[in-house]
Structures are given as structure tokens and as C-alpha cells.
Amino acid sequence: MRSWAGLLRVLCVAELLLGAAVFACVSAYVHKDNEWYNMFGYSQPYGFAAGGAYGGYYYGGPKTPFVLVAAGVAWIVTIVLLVLGMSVYYRTILLDSNWWPLTEFGINVALSFLYMAAAIVYVNDINRGGLCYYPLFKTPINASFCRVEGGQTAAIIFLFVTVVLYLISAVVALKLWRHEGARRHRELMAREVSHQSYESVDRPREEITYRQLKSVEVKPERLNGHIPAGHIPKPIVMPDYLAKYPAIQTNEMRDRYKAVFNDQFAEYKELSGEVHAVLRKFDELDALMRKLPHNPGSIHDPAFLEKKERCEYLKNKLSHIKQRIQDYDKVMNWNVQV
């Protein structure tokens, strides 16, 4: 996953592996705890418990249970984050929320502090609270308690490396929060741009002028009030160009739309000129037509009606294609400015 969320999942896997290594290394030397309890119980060795009279060192027994509990709790929380991050709910719901990345940041910071406390406690435990630095304590009997094994050294290294990993996860969670916030802002702006209506503008690079074309919205017939008996509603016929020319997505689509527009714009101008010429003649002869009741159907001539219908169709089609081109240009120009 090439994203901040994917990097968080990779870090979770690394934290789980290191957490398991910490648990294994610390558990391997629990027998030292038993030897301490068998020899000294829950108190300091004789002569070293007089309230710091011997160098101020105090040790009340091994603290490895705390280290094991801290590693176990962190391991469980991390595996929950990993499983949740690989779910559909995480990608569809949590990433769209503003609070979850900050919550994940807080969890990682808390786990890093928990591991830091465990690392400090374990280092102090290996030195027996500092008693191993006191010469009187280093007797042949107590020497085994001060000897640091290789597994204990590895546990210390794993503890501090895990602290660093959780801090890195916290930083990545902050990056994820900023990234998702920017993504939501871009999507909001894109929706506003797509819903905004654009006015026609002059473009010097266009070879033709079509400023007079306006978008035509096809609305179904509506009847208000009482519907008369026997009324048969007209079927809604959607023009074919609405489905044939959807929103432009690429420059190739824009070039193809423009070629269709240029090709049929000449036909539209020719038909439009003929239709307007005929309409002007009908306007001029309107009075005469009223005086000639025997010839009232001249305006309904099939050839003329066919030309008029074709002209109206081309006007709507070209307006639709022009609107698609303008929408695409507006979005592309906005993306370049951003």
C-alpha cells in the first residue's frame, strides 16, 4: 500500500515482531527472578536495606513481570490496530473521519511511553537497582545476579528500538491526518466545481464562433391540478447525445467532441439560416395567411417541419457538447492553478 496508512500497517508488523522478541528474551531469564526470591524473598539482601546507608541503592526484587505485562498489552493493542487497518471499515469510515488519525497518534505515543518505562525498569532490574555497582554486593554468591546475559542485552536493544518505532508511527499518523484532510478538501472543491454552472466565454484559439449557443434543459411535461379523464401522458424521450457525449475525462475525448462540434456546426448554421429565413417570410405573410383560410397549413409543411426539427436537435446537441468541453476546461484550469 503506497500511502501513509500502508506505512502504518508495515510499522505495526515490525512492532509486533519486536514485541514478540522482547517477550521471548525477557521470559527466557525468569529463572533469575525465582533464584532471587528463593535467596532473598521480597526484601533486599542483608546489610543493604538500611535506608540508603550503603550508597543509597534500593532494590525490592525483580520487576520483569511489569516488563512482560507492558509488552503484552502493547502487543494486543498493536494487533488490534493492524487488523482494524486492514479492514474495509478503516478505509471507508475511519479514514474519512477527522478524529481517527489523531486517535491513532495518541495510541502510538502512549505505547511508546509504555515501552520506554518498561525499558528503564528492565535496565534498572538487570543492575539490581544499582546494587551491582556496589563493591560489597559483588560476592561470589551474588555474582550470578549481576551477570548480564546475551538475551538480556538483546531485550534491552529490542525495547528501545520498539520505542523508536512507536514514535515513528505517531509521526506517520500525523502525516496521515494532514494528508486525509487535504484529500477531503480537494474532493469538496472538485464537487463544488462540478456543480457550478459556467457562463459562455470567448476562447481566441477556437476557429469558430458559437457564443450564441446556450444549454437547453429538457424538462418533462407537467400537469398541475386535476388530470383530465382519458389523458395519456407523453413518454419522455431523452436525446441520444446525452448518453453518447458524457462528461469529458481526457484530452482525447475533448478533441473528439470538438471535431464533432466543428463538423456539425456548419450544418447547423446552414439549417438555422434556412429556418430563420422561412420564419421571417411567414411573419411577413402572416396577415395574408389569415386572409387565405384555404391555405392555413403552409407552415406545417412536412419538409419544413423536418428541417426545423433537425435544426432544433442540432442546436441542443451542439449546446450539450459545448457545455461538456467548457466543464472539462474549467476543471483542468482549476487543477493547474492549484
TrEMBL record:
The keyword Transmembrane helix applies. The keyword Nuclease does not apply. GO terms for cellular component: apical plasma membrane; bicellular tight junction; cytoplasmic vesicle. Keywords: Cell junction, Cell membrane, Coiled coil, Membrane, Tight junction, Transmembrane, Transmembrane helix. Pfam families: MARVEL, Occludin_ELL. Residues 239-333 form the OCEL domain. It is found in: Cell junction, Tight junction; Cell membrane. It is a multi-pass membrane protein. Belongs to the ELL/occludin family. PANTHER family: MARVEL DOMAIN-CONTAINING PROTEIN 2, OCCLUDIN AND RNA POLYMERASE II ELONGATION FACTOR ELL. This is MARVEL domain containing 2. It comes from Apteryx owenii.
